[in-house]
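Typical record is below.
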Amino acid sequence: MKNTTPGFRKERATSSFRSLRGSLISSRAPRPTPPAPSFVSPTPRPSSHSPLYERRICFIGAGTMGHALIQGLLAKGMPARQLYAADPSPQARRKISRLGLSVSDDNRECRQADVIVLAVKPQEMPSVLADLASNLHPPQWVISIAAGIPLSFLESRLPRLPIVRVMPNLPATVGQGFSALAMGCRVRLRHRRIAMEIFNAVGQVVRVAEPLLDAITAVSGSGPAYVFFLAQVWEEAALRLGLPRAVARRAVAQTLKGSVQLLEKNSLSPQEWIARVASKRGTTEAALRVLEQRRVRFAIVAALQAAAKRSRQLSRLSQ
């Protein structure tokens, strides 16, 4: 399908999409080259049976998450000619154009797309919706990944369009994300399938009722920061114990990575894994006793409750 839409600028990709790694830090020790992660493995273009077949998708906002979704779809085999992006930043547009996409600084140029993905900051959403309101019409529909903007707000500005609200997270940038989808009142099965396919390109996807997105925000949306906080404190403790910084960082990162893989690939619960590591009157039991005495368990629960509460407050402020 030849792109004849005015306003978009087509540029050839000048460099290939580089493989991204999902680990926090790569080991310096020699080791066999692992197989490429599925996020970047070459795959055939979507077949005629795929929900994405011949769909034109426009991303309004080409920042971190928009860029990650575009990369994921390209890696999945979607032709660049079916993807578009609009962003006011020249730097963001240059970065996207290197992937072979058509780019524009005008959001209204997305009016030729089948699906419009709103990947803008929450404070930018009112003006973006105002630009789009008179330029989008059924059967076009919208996906929003803006945190704290409820479906009711989006549907009041785009009253005739099906809208899906999504909460992704930062690991989507390495193809290991977790996204939760909530469906608006006009969404049908075909819309849901396309939305699931888009976010499957950057990790795992679940469908939830919109009220649960506040909990999703607290658990997985903000979740990477909790992991990074733990890694930071863990590394600081390792330094105090005398480990060199390079050794401490590798030890923490690899232990986190290996432990997560055990959780993913085995049916044992976290409690059962703790029991396997902590022998009676051993070193692990001594450490866990301190964590319980300092009420770390309750602090983590309180932290997630605070995040969920703030998510609800932000949603109310946007209404």
